[in-house]
Fold this protein.
Amino acid sequence: MRMVLKAQIPTEAGNELIKNGTLSKIMEAALSALKPEAAYFTLDHGDRTCFYYFDMQQSSQIPPLIESFFMDLHAKVSLQPVMNADELRTGLSDLMSGT
């Protein structure tokens, strides 16, 4: 199932990770582990924020995929299923046809 993981890194934690040179290593490890189809980095409510769109095969993947965001980044994390445009079209078609 396609998922979006949002991680908000508190300013103080992010500053420290940049100063000690580990933020880029943590981000690379996340990209390697998640193998996202897309990853975006921005600000949200004043925090450094990452959005990773990736495929999750089973819910048991959640702990190994997200714990580093909590432990290494002290991030606020959310995880939810998402659809692309083709999946939305299919879902709406199924809804309208009663299947």
Summary: The mean pLDDT is 95. The radius of gyration is 16 Å.
